[in-house]
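B., you asked whether I could sanity-check this one before it goes into the benchmark set. Here's the sequence:
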Amino acid sequence: MPCCRRGQYRKDGEACSGSLHFFLDLYGFDTVNFIDTHTHLYLPEFKDDRDEVVTSALENGILKMLLPNVDGKTINSMHALSDKYPEHCLPMIGLHPTSVDMEYPKEILKIRELLGKRKYWGIGETGIDLYWDKTFATQQEEAFREHINLAKEFTLPLIIHARNSFSELFRIMDRENDETLKGIFHAFTGDLVQARQIIDYGFKLGIGGILTFKNSELDTVVREIDLQHLVLETDAPYLSPVPMRGKRNEPSYLVNTANKLAEIHQVSLETIAKITSLNAATLFNIIL
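And here's what the prediction gave me:
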């Protein structure tokens, strides 16, 4: 198989320079463990069995779960979960685009205040959503820029929500992106051109249950993307992978998406676990 550039790795998980094996040893990837880079376990959908869901995730090798915030109403429940499981549930802070309205500056001030009081692992989720409602489209763009500034200031990964809004997001990213900005375009469902644009920004593609959907066509895009650019996520309680589609999603179902990704790239599940976990651990500065 052709050799890749120094520091990169091939579909089979082998690095030409040996760098992959070095990092796998460094991070302790000797078993099939995963990182769920996007899950909302603090939401009411899990109020009756949240502890059981966390236990199931750990039993299935999902050792770290990144928690993106929604808005001011979800902060306390997110903090409660991350305080209960500090080694496994890692909070992020932001304002979801569908929660943006004319009062969004107050939410941004609260986010900035909290960033000075406790540890967060990322900024988000933020972005632009023009699927449900375009009433506050201008405010969504403004709030997105504010999140970019916070990510740069606090040197944290930026978690971007994109729905019917790639052109708007790319227009802002073209202006605001620099070498200090990094992050994930979460729940990626775009085409190959959009994927390559995101990679050019230095961002990862968040791949979730949609990959397993029969008619999503995401598999044809992901097949052309090197694994070094991908991280795995569930977006629980939403977007459950096949065969749980239509049911409440949870982190343990990440393995179904990982299996599909392994099938598409014709590699082992272990390789998928190692590479995607390394990608996430490097991005979020997580030590496993």
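One thing to flag: The first strand starts at residue 34 and ends at 36. Otherwise nothing jumped out at me.
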